[in-house]
Design brief:
23 strands; four-stranded parallel beta sheet; single chain; 469 residues; alpha/beta; 15 helices
Length: 469
């Protein structure tokens, strides 16, 4: 007798924790993920600024799940879901395949939102993938190298100006780390430039940094950024981005900021798969493409399909949608697994999903962070220690935790950065792939075209001679 089949799309926090919670359940799980690793996204900015290696925040999925026998890991991007036939259509490297399911967990994470200006992505990478982080690392460290070669003061200043768009946790952390590089790690290493003269500009359309943390912590964070030399431009809207600068509109009017290195840390949206699944299931989505789900995280009319984390829109106790943070995905994954297991054991379903807010944290610089946990508001060194402990706890694998702590010690206690290697390929590969295309898709298209082209049959000489008479 065939066991219950669970398909999981996405190996982020939601998908991975759901799979782990089903390790003893009588199910066969198929995990579909576009990469071979699980990404600890909150620490991407530390990869981009040379604190950590990509391997420390992205352990291989197969290694993470090697002791769980009821999981089949498959590499590929889910393209669409047939909710009637209960089939997921997947595009893998050079091969298409399908996965049938009895229960489906959709937890494909989020993509960067440029608010309708997707061309900004060409010049201001986001912070959603290892590729983004490695590209930014090459651009950030490369900017100092190229500035050192310039003889024109204006060109030098342009290379030493770094603009971070978005004053949420990712933007604040990114701006803080670039400032640490410029003022603490790199001085004394260049003959023709002083890295301390670099400009780090943090831009946001709203009127506060870390605006979800409350006025008290927002003010503390703003003060610390100013002490680090970060220029904070609030109530400032980005209207255009190009190779050599960024255009903004503020209370001062229209301005251009010449800069060769821009980082986009503003706004997220659900991936296209969310809208496809919603359309197939007859469900609704919000403006960010997230699926409006039932209180048990299932899609209306389809109790066998769960949407988790950044893929879902579910109102919290305050009436606002739950935030797109790791804890929402983790708790959602555990809850979905519990629902599936209780169904299989013919036990009453658990009550509606209730999110337990464990708080929010953001680092600003070494030894300085802000933390909002319940009614507790912390800033400074103690908040920073709390941030370290929490992030080490949620890293997957003892080896990753150990090496991460070692690299943090090198970076925060000393003046070095463990991961400063950056290549030209990392800086330009994304644009080249966009222009050149996916090689697997090109080969596949060529093979399909060849299969549809009729092969001319060679005529017998006598028949050809008769035809010419």
């Amino acid at each position: 007798m065939q066991r219950h089949r669970v398909a999981v799309i996405g190996a982020g926090f939601g998908g991975l924790f759901a799979i782990r919670a089903l390790r003893n359940a009588p199910v066969d799980i198929t995990l579909i993920n576009g990469t071979a690793y699980h990404l600890f996204q909150p620490l991407l900015y530390q990869v981009a600024t040379g604190v950590l290696s990509e391997g420390e925040i992205a352990p291989p999925i197969r290694e993470v799940l090697k002791r769980q026998d009821n999981v089949d890991v498959k590499l590929g991007w889910a393209q669409r879901v047939d909710t009637d036939k209960k089939i997921v259509y997947v595009s893998g490297p050079g091969i298409d395949y399908t996965v049938e399911y009895d229960s489906l967990i959709v937890a494909a994470g989020a993509s960067q939102s440029y608010f309708g200006n997707d061309h900004f992505n060409d010049f201001a990478p986001g912070m959603k993938s290892i590729d983004d982080a490695l590209e930014l690392r090459a651009k950030i460290f490369g900017a100092f190298e190229i500035a050192d070669l310039q003889t024109d003061p204006e060109a030098q200043e342009r290379w030493l100006t770094f603009v971070v768009v978005g004053a949420g946790p990712t933007g604040v952390e990114m701006a803080g780390q670039i400032a640490e590089l410029a003022h603490r790690n790199l001085p004394g290493q260049y003959k023709h430039i002083d890295p301390r003269k670099a400009r780090i500009i943090l831009v946001d359309a709203v009127g506060a940094v870390l605006n979800t943390f409350g006025d008290h912590l927002s003010t503390r964070a703003l003060r610390q950024l100013h002490l680090m030399g970060v220029e904070v431009e609030l109530n400032t809207k980005v209207v255009d981005v190009d190779l050599t600068g960024i255009e903004v509109e503020s209370e001062r009017g229209h301005e251009r900021i010449p800069s060769m290195t821009k980082v986009w840390a503003a706004g997220v949206q659900a991936p296209p798969l969310a809208r496809q699944v919603a359309e197939a299931a007859g469900a609704e989505t919000d403006r960010a493409g997230r699926i409006l789900v039932n209180p048990d995280l299932t899609i209306p009319g389809h109790p066998e399909i769960f949407a988790l984390g950044d893929m879902m829109n579910l109102a919290g106790p305050d009436g606002h949608p739950l935030p797109g943070v790791a804890q929402v995905a983790i708790q959602g994954g555990n809850y979905a697994a519990k629902v599936i297991e209780k169904r299989l054991r013919n036990k009453p379903a658990p009550g509606p999903f209730k999110y337990f807010d464990k708080g929010s944290m953001a680092t600003i610089s070494r030894f300085s962070a802000v933390a909002s946990v319940g009614k507790l508001r912390l800033s400074g060194f103690f908040a920073w220690v709390m941030w370290l402990v929490v992030h080490v706890f949620y890293l997957v694998g003892f080896k990753n935790r150990f090496t991460t702590v070692v690299h943090w010690a090198v970076s925060f206690l000393g003046r070095g950065r463990s991961e400063r290697v950056a290549t030209e390929q990392q800086a330009f590969a994304r644009r080249a792939m966009k222009d050149y295309g996916d090689p697997y898709q090109r080969v596949r298209a060529a093979e399909e075209a060849a299969a549809l082209t009729p092969v001319p049959t060679e005529k017998h000489p006598a028949a050809a001679e008769k035809a010419n008479v």
